[in-house]
């Protein structure tokens, strides 16, 4: 089973939600959720985003491996939304630009 499916299962267990309840919260067919687990495929990003939305967590929290809860302020959230719409080349340029603006470059980061 993929990390994403295992994480969805973990989040459902934490909330006491069944797959049916998750589907209801997402306003989708229970078959859609059941198919994810029957096929053991990696859910799409829009599906994961919707799951995060109904569970009240961010994508960063979904993918957090250390259990740390990350809270983004509105400006940080906006930066990530803009970043998500860039192609790969533009993402690399944006990262290089931000590293140039920061006091610490990539080699200095710990």
TrEMBL record:
From the record, give the transmembrane residue ranges.
none
State the name under which the record lists this protein.
Helix-turn-helix transcriptional regulator
- Any matching Pfam family: HTH_3
The record's listing under Gene3D superfamilies reads: lambda repressor-like DNA-binding domains
| GO-annotated molecular function | DNA binding
Q: Which InterPro entries match?
A: Cro/C1-type_HTH, Lambda_DNA-bd_dom_sf
CDD domains named in the record: HTH_XRE
Please report the stretch or stretches of sequence annotated as the HTH cro/C1-type domain. Answer: 8-62
């Amino acid at each position: 089973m993929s990390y994403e499916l295992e994480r969805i299962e973990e989040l459902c267990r934490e909330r006491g939600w069944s797959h049916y309840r998750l589907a209801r919260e997402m306003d989708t067919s229970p078959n859609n959720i059941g198919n994810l687990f029957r096929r053991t495929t990696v859910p799409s990003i829009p599906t994961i985003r919707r799951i995060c939305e109904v569970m009240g967590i961010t994508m960063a929290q979904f993918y957090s491996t250390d259990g740390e809860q990350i809270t983004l302020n509105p400006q940080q959230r906006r930066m990530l939304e803009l970043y998500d719409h860039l192609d790969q080349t533009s993402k690399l340029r944006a990262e290089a630009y931000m590293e140039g603006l920061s006091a610490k470059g990539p080699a200095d980061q710990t």
